[in-house]
């Protein structure tokens, strides 16, 4: 199972775009990249998933370069309510759907 | 219900007591996961069910931990003879089983915070 590396923490201000990069050098051919968000005292919540190039939804964008060894979660115009821990995970439908969760990136959005 | 529910939300146990944590997944979700999350850490995989079958229990830390999902819906995580190191938040997640390459979106409950004194 591929492991991921991401910054422990980031700071930003309201209205800014935030980009969180995740490294996954050992990603397998059939692995997908998924990001989750977790607020204090809550379970994680799915944000976005992608395999290659760019994926966008109403919450975020996910950029994946051709070699797929890294990915970047982009949060446009963050607000105070985006303060949370963001997890990058790599996995596929095999391995009994087991996902390896790292420490995540603790994002603090300041007024 | 609309989401995954877990009970109790908080549990305080004396060292050596047995505890049982309940998870009610989203109706119709085939897959069910249990995770342990220590303070400041990411969730750690404990076990996985597909319907009533426990397909993976490689993450259970010891034989004091036992999980079941007898009818393929509600699941219970039982911890026998609790120890202080068992103190953590226990998260349950469920998902639809989707054919295809990507990982299924996991829907998490709020967790049960277990404190062992």
How would you sum up this structure, described in words?
The N and C termini of chain A lie far apart (39 Å). Chain A has strands spanning 9-13, 18-23, 32-38, 45-50, 53-56, 61-64, 70-75, 84-91, 105-110. In chain A, a hairpin with a 4-residue loop joins strand 5 and strand 6. Chain A is 0% helix and 47% strand. By secondary structure, chain A is mainly beta. Helices cover 0% and strands 47% of the residues of chain B. Chain B is built from no helices and eleven strands. The model of chain B has no long low-confidence stretch (mean pLDDT 93). With 117 residues, chain B is mainly beta. Chain A binds chain B through residues 30, 32, 34, 36, 41-46, 49, 51, 87, 89, 91-93, 96-104, and chain B through 4, 31, 33, 35, 40-45, 48, 50, 55-56, 58-59, 91, 93, 95, 98-111.
Question: How are the SSEs ordered, and which strands pair?
Answer:
The complex is a heterodimer of chains A (111) and B (117).
Chain A: E1 9-13, E2 18-23, E3 32-38, E4 45-50, E5 53-56, E6 61-64, E7 70-75, E8 84-91, E9 105-110
Parallel strand pairs in A: 1-9
Antiparallel strand pairs in A: 2-7, 3-4, 3-8, 5-6, 6-7, 8-9
Chain B: E1 5-7, E2 10-13, E3 19-24, E4 31-37, E5 44-50, E6 53-56, E7 65-68, E8 75-79, E9 88-95, E10 107-108, E11 112-116
Parallel strand pairs in B: 2-11
Antiparallel strand pairs in B: 1-3, 3-8, 4-5, 4-9, 5-6, 7-8, 9-10, 9-11
Strand line-up of the largest beta sheet of chain A: 1-9-8-3-4
Q: For this entry, what is the oligomeric state of its chains?
A: heterodimer
Number of helices of chain A: 0
Number of strands of chain B: 11
Query: Major sheet of chain A, described briefly?
Result: 5 strands, mixed
Shape of chain A: globular
Classify the beta-strand content of chain A into a percent band.
over 45%
**How much helicity do the residues of chain A have?**
under 10%
The main pleated sheet of chain B reads as: 7 strands, mixed
Intertermini distance of chain A: 39 Å
Helix and strand composition category of chain B: mainly beta
Provide the gyration radius of chain B in Å: 14 Å
- Level of helix content of chain B? under 10%
